[in-house]
Each structure stands twice: as structure tokens, then as C-alpha cells.
Amino acid sequence: QSALTQPRSVSGSPGQSVTISCTGTSSDVGGYNYVSWYQQHPGKAPKLMIYDVSKRPSGVPDRFSGSKSGNTASLTISGLQAEDEADYYCCSYAGSYKEVFGGGTKLTVL
Amino acid sequence: EVQLVESGGGLVQPGRSLRLSCAASGFTFDDYAMHWVRQAPGKGLEWVSGISWNSGSIGYADSVKGRFTISRDNAKNSLYLQMNSLRAEDTALYYCAKEAAAALGLGYGMDVWGQGTTVTVSS
Hints:
Oligomer: heterodimer
Radius of gyration of chain A: 13 Å
Structural class of chain B: mainly beta
Order of helices and strands of chain A: EEEEEEEEE
Number of strands of chain A: 9
Helix content of chain A: under 10%
Number of helices of chain A: 0
Distance between the termini of chain B: 39 Å
Strand content of chain A: 35-45%
Structural class of chain A: mainly beta
Largest sheet of chain B: 7 strands, mixed
Shape of chain B: globular
Strand content of chain B: over 45%
Shape of chain A: globular
Largest sheet of chain A: 6 strands, mixed
Largest interface: A-B, 32 and 30 residues
């Protein structure tokens, strides 16, 4: 049960798009269409941004989108805004009622 | 207002036990699965354990299996985590999170989170 692999950091300018990858194995990301993404601002609890690979909960801007190919899932944030600066975590179902998170990616808005 | 409030954290010596609680309000507790997720100081999120709406399905991270026990009392709208044989590496902020589905493993995500309770394991 190893953590999913995410880049430690990504950055982009306001208005640009960034993509955060999340690589797992055929036992987690590749085996299920059950990937979710969370946004966490410093000192705050995480917030669900994407579930079921590409679905957005009510209230999440459509600037946030998710996708998956093989063992790698991706979160794309378009039209970057200053308030998007945060840590982002992917999470995948891993079978046997287990979940596994990625190591997290720090997004900097330049 | 949908709310989760964790309690029970504190400073504990290695090898000792601690029981965390999570009080839920503002939603029908027994309609949803629940999770515990922890975050060590300055580190990322780590899923700890999950339990389905009726306690029929339970999962644990390998790092805590055999030491931690998750449970829930739907009559009291409460989730628990019994932590035994605590180690220094269990030091973290422990979050209670609501799954957006009754069962585990359906990929609906954790849509409500508490503010966490801090557990420090140190002699």
C-alpha cells in the first residue's frame, strides 16, 4: 500500500492552466475509476474537488477537471486564480475497502 | 449545518492507548460511510481507516492494521478510533471525514471533513 506519486510542486501564472499528475498501479488508480482530488489551504481541512475521476461536487468551479489514463490520473486547473494556490492530493480506492492518497502537490500561482 | 467535530487527542507515551471520537451533526449519520485520515506535521494526508454505514465493511491502512480499531454508534451519531500500541510515527492531526456514499469503495469521495484532533506520541 504505497502512496500514489505526485509532483512535489507545480506553478503557473494567473489565467494559465496547470496539470497535476497522480501515478499509481493497476491495484489502485489503474484498477478502479475511483479517483478523487482534494484541495488543502494552509491550516485548513481538505476540500473535495473531484470524485469518480472526473466529476465535480456542487459548488466546485468548472475550471477544475479530472481525467485518467492507465495508472495515471490528472487534475487540470484552467484559468488559474490566486485563491487556487494550495496543496492538492489525489486519492484512489485500492481494493479491500482501502484508500490511498498521493504525497501531495504544492501549487504556486506566480 | 453539516459538521464533524473530533475530540480525544492529546499527548501519550509510546505503547499506550488513546480513543478518538467524532461527533456528527446536520446530516443523517447512518446513511454514510466514514473515514479517519491523518496528517503528520508538515506532511501529506494518509488514509487510516474507513467503515461503511452499518459497520459491515471496514478497512485499515497497513501501517495501523492490528493496532487501531474503527467503530461507529449510529444511535449517537458518532465515529470512533481506538488506537493501541501507539508509536512516535502515529503523531499527527487526525481528521474524521464523511464519505459521500453509504458503502466503502464506490469512489464518491470524502465530502465533509472535521477540523481534526492532534495526537502526539512521545515519552
